[in-house]
Specification:
Blueprint lengths: L2 H4 L6 H5 L11 H11 L27 H4 L1 E6 L6 H14 L4 E5 L14 E5 L5 E6 L2 E6 L18 E7 L11 E6 L2 H13 L5 E6 L6 H5 L3 H8 L3 E4 L3 H6 L8 H31 L2
Parallel strand pairs: 1-6, 1-7, 2-5, 2-6, 7-8, 8-9
Antiparallel strand pairs: 3-4, 4-5
Helix pairs in contact: 5-10
Protein name: MinD-like ATPase involved in chromosome partitioning or flagellar assembly
InterPro entries: P-loop_NTPase
Amino acid sequence: MNAGAAAGGPVTVGRVLGVEEQPVGPLSVADVQHVMRHLLGRQARTAGGDTGEAQPGEDVTPAPDRSDAARQVSVIAGHPGAGSSTVALALADAAAASGQSVHLLDPASPGRSGLVAAAAVELGTDPTGTWRRGRRTSIVIERRAFFHGESTVVPSGVVDDELTVLDLGCTERTTARAIPTIVVCRANVPGVRLVEQRLEELAGRPLLVAAVGPHGWAREVRASVGPRLTALQDTALVVNVPWDSRLDVIGLTDRPLPRPVVAAGAQLLSSIDTARRLLAVDGRAAGRGDR
């Protein structure tokens, strides 16, 4: 970290990357991932003349065998109202229960954050005033304190965390291809239809689906399942997240999540390696087919 950051000044994309700062509009997911890897001391590969610069909306793909991808997981809603913040918090709570320290990051504008009441202790804002920080057991939760159209300020507290969970909600941005991505949907006919489209958009990444609803799907729901969701079901990469009536009423608070919901989070975490291995196998098979 350079002297300006050490002195408590704003930690910006330009400052961290050592380039001239320019107003670039709202911080993209690619920007967050790029700067997080830089703060962790892991530079993206720059082979073949690639500059390694993250452009808004484009993938930033780290090397598959590096540890930064293993320490990050993205949670994306397959459709509005799917419950991505609940699943992201379930992942964080499950990891914390296993003894890990966790960083849960919600880059949404303040009025759209599903984690506004999830911290047990509020720790104030970071030195830039852009991010509001809270703590929940061994989880550090960071969400936007405000959203300024030209802000490129990112939180600086990710360096010591063992696991980073990105709650991306309904964003249209894509994540780096090496980062496992959990797509959340409701276990109903509209939900499984919409998540099929989302899975197609995110193809080429380690993917899992968190289906919020009853464990046994209705006949109409099963009949609406598309080929990509079927393939994930066949490899046990679709995890049921129980619907909880109390959560549906009060939303996410500082109280512990219901045990079945946390158990689903633990199952998702344990399935990430399977998703990564299956993607690698598919990639090798596709490579042999191209010869």
